[in-house]
Amino acid sequence: MVARALLTLVAHDVRQHLRDRSMLLFALVIPLALAFVFSLAFAGLDDVELDPVTVAVAAPEGDEPAAAVTGTLQALPEQALPVTVLTAVAEEVPALVEAGEAGVGVVLPEGFGAAMSGGATPGSDVIVRVGPDAGLSGDVVADIVRSTVAQMDADAAALAATAERADLSEQELGALAQELGQSRPELAWTSSQVRGESLSLTSGIVSGQAGMFLFFTVGFIVLTLLTEREWGILGRLRSLPLPRWLVPAAKAVVAVLLGVASTSTILLAGTALLDGVHFGSWWVVLPLVVAVVVAATSVMFIILKVARTPEQASLALSVIAISLGVAGGSFFRLPVDGWVAQVVQINPVAALGRGLGISAGGGGLADLTPVLLTLIAFTAVALLVARVLPSRKDAL
């Protein structure tokens, strides 16, 4: 009897809400439209291209370690970094950088190789200048030079330690130093994704919009209890021989069903219509979506407890949805440093983004466990607050 009544109420509410154009607008049309607009506005930020840059290098002649540094720079075009190496004398390098003829200037001091062969670390004497117009390419090249020299310094220190501890002849030590000086550090560019941090910018936008507008979707459904009370519908339902909790339970079931449907549709539409959007296996995504929808629905019962009218409930819904959406990264990612930011991040919108990042990076349900536990705890706390919070109106 109770199960049949619950199914009847659920089926009736589902039909009613599917006919409601305003709910469909907030559940599907607006979040997809915003995701599309934001993806166009921020297009290209994910695919950073390095501009060509000229590097003026002053290196002592006949210095093999210094030549190895120059050779590393000359090999960068093979790694898709457009670098042109310009040979110059040390006095010319600052002027070339200031005049804009070179984006980066590198000065290797006299005796660079000799000091390194002797076990010294001459890296601190290397001068690297980056011009104001060098951009990201200039910074990358400067970091490569510093890293290369630092690695050579480390090798020189290791050579000195070997000379002290090992019984090497002077000839063997010189041969080892010469071989070390002639070696050129190898560089290779690789693309990688870190599990949990794998959402592209566009994927993050789609995820954020789906999470924020999820609150409006479930809110429209649960908060109809207030309208039904004003119109007397709730009173007539309560007059039937049914448990008192049945009507709110039916609203919660409908909210979860339609919330899962709308969120999944947004994620699927984003994957199909927008470039670079990928959320991983749906066997992993679907449990996450269900947990997020249940957590968002639990917040609605707090609003039901404190709002006296549908207008007050709608205002509270908007404030909560936008606040949690912004905190969860619906429009842009917020810094997560400090305990305040960490607390703010504990909400269904942020959890959806973190979980989708895990699934997009190839993670499974086991990797998703911390996020799911966070959502379960959020739901439990919200329902407990809704239970103990003093009501400002007649009980539903």
Give the distance, in angstroms, between the N- and C-terminal Cα atoms.
22 Å
Provide mean pLDDT, rounded. Answer: 78
Question: Biggest sheet, in brief?
Answer: 4 strands, mixed
Any idea what the shape is? elongated
Number of domains: 2
Helix vs. strand class: mainly alpha
Report Rg.
31 Å
Could you state the order of secondary-structure elements as H and E?
Answer: HHEHEHEHEHHHHHHHHHHH
What is the β-strand count?
4
Oligomer: single chain
- Strand neighbour order, sheet with most strands: 2-1-3-4
Membrane topology: Multi-pass membrane protein
GO molecular function: ABC-type transporter activity
InterPro entries: ABC-2_transporter_component, ABC2_TM
Protein name: ABC transporter permease
List keywords for this structure.
single chain; 396 residues; mainly alpha; 4-stranded mixed sheet; elongated; cell membrane; transmembrane helix
Can you offer a commentary on this structure?
Helix 2 runs parallel beside helix 11 and helix 3 runs antiparallel to helix 6. This protein has a 4-stranded mixed beta sheet. 63% of the residues lie in helices and 5% in strands. The chain is elongated, with a radius of gyration of 31 Å. It has 2 domains: 232 residues, no CATH class; 130 residues, abc type-2 transporter like fold (3-Layer(aba) Sandwich). The chain is mostly helical. About 2% of the residues have low confidence. It comes from Ornithinimicrobium pratense. It holds the Pfam family ABC2_membrane_3. One of its GO terms (molecular function) is ABC-type transporter activity. Keywords: Cell membrane, Membrane, Transmembrane, Transmembrane helix. This is ABC transporter permease.
